Amino acid sequence: MPLPTPGANYQIAFEIRSNGNGRIAIDSLIFTLLEGLDLVEFRPEDSTTTSMTPEVYALFNRNIEPDANFADITLVKVGTTVNLAEGRVSVNDGNRRRLDIRYAALEENTDYVVTIPASAIRAVSELVAMPYTEPITWTFTTGVTPTVLSTLTPALTAGNRVMPTTPISVLFTGTLVAPREGRSLDEITVHRITGATLNDPNPESPPQIWSGGTASEPLTGFTPRIEGMTLHIDHNGLAESALYEVRIPRGVIDRLDTNIIHYRDGYLSVQAPLSYTVSPWIFFTSILPIDVLSRVPAPNATNVALNTAIVVRANKPLTMIEEADFGKVTVTHPGGPLDVRTGLHSHEDSTHVLVIEHDGFAAATTYTVTVPFGEMGASSVLADTWTWSFTTASDNSIADIVFELFMVMIYPNPAVDVLNIKSEEPVTRIEIFNLNGQLVKQAHGDQNRISVADLSNGTYLVRITTQKGAVTQRFVKQ
């Protein structure tokens, strides 16, 4: 007789005889030979290297359910005792034969061991208890996840313009390892491409992002550094309205082996097969708007000394712009406008200053200063009108120091034949401009006067340059 097949139904016929009183026959008896609970497979396979996020599970030949030691199933890093699967083990909803062992996160290139103790699971059966009585254990090793470029700052888009103060950085999807042995982050370069013109975005493919630009000059004073998943390229500020190119050579950052993006004659192209070195990318800087760093007197200041000069320090050089008229810079009080003299000072320490001088404030009076939109300029103009108020002291107090600048005086004003200059520092250049910003006369060398006899009558601006900086003041030619 052949052996019965597990899981199949069988019918048995047999007789039961009585002691001479006839016989009782049982026609048949149906029974099922139950199949045992066996492990079919587990993943990841024992002693294999897998990804950073592998599926960890054990598959059985029958539907399973938790047993007495279900909570003791563990996934631990070799050499440690912390159960990474605690509270994350379950029977798969879609496949009741599969035991899923989940985790929060695994480390790269690390050995892990999975343990399913005896009596942790059992077969689903209404007839008889069927626990899995043998412990199951296996190990696996995680691999290294490729580092993938996630975000470029400044962004790599056609027609993109960024502020000159914008940080340069590259965000990846994994923790960076740098530099490789024998390599250095100092191999990263930032160049300004001169003579280039940024083109308008073009729907044609590929878009031509810029045209021209044959020479490049290296940016100095920047520092590459790695912080977690980000490569930072710290700098002290970029030039305005300029094209820059960043190059990160292949191999400087570990796991970055080939280029994903490169430029050819101003055109954007993507290499195949795709990979994840950013070498190079380009971006254009915009013009930094003029902004106020400080004001004297401060906005809403009180008890201001009556001889205090009004001073505005800006973030960039202030120069006259076309049709700029210093007369539009006003200081007013309830009785009307104050007679003021406005001048520009450009310092050797890169402090850029607008000075509004006067013959003295009235006591206990509120003054309002207004520098209209567009009246001050550098490579850009004021984005907004500068206006603020302050209140003077109630007595006749004066300040010990009016304003700490090298002093320059011009006289006579108005001038007829000669404009004289008195300066604490030797004068190296004198320039006279009309109110359209056009240079009409200049003198170089150690000069303390300049002839104005040949100038037409009207208002002019004189720029006086010394070794400490430059001052621009207004005068009238009669």
Overview of this structure, please?
This protein is mostly beta strands. The protein folds into 4 domains: 39-142, Immunoglobulin-like (Sandwich), CATH 2.60.40; 149-285, no CATH class; 292-391, Immunoglobulin-like, CATH 2.60.40; 408-477, Immunoglobulin-like (Sandwich). Helices cover 0% and strands 44% of the residues. The chain has no helices and 39 strands. The protein has strands at residues 9-17, 23-32, 39-43, 48-50, 57-60, 64-66, 74-77, 89-91, 98-101, 111-116, 121-123, 136-142, 149-153, 161-162, 168-172, 189-198, 210-218, 223-227, 230-234, 243-247, 259-264, 267-270, 277-278, 281-285, 292-296, 310-314, 330-333, 336-337, 340-347, 352-358, 366-371, 386-391, 408-411, 418-423, 427-433, 439-444, 449-451, 458-466, 469-477. Residues 6-18, 25-30, 201-207, 257-279 and 400-404 have low confidence and may be disordered.
| Largest sheet properties | 8 strands, antiparallel
Class derived from helix and strand content = mainly beta
Spans with pLDDT under 50 lasting ≥5 residues?
6-18, 25-30, 201-207, 257-279, 400-404
What's the domain count?
4
What's the tally of helices? 0
Assembly state: single chain
Give the averaged pLDDT, no decimals.
Answer: 75
> What's the total number of strands?
39
Biggest sheet strand line-up:
25-26-30-29-39-38-35-36
Helix content: under 10%
N- to C-terminal distance: 135 Å
Mass-distribution shape: elongated
Radius of gyration: 42 Å
Which percent range describes the beta-strand content?
35-45%
Notable features of this structure?
478 residues; mainly beta; Immunoglobulin-like; 4 domains; five-stranded mixed beta sheet; 39 strands
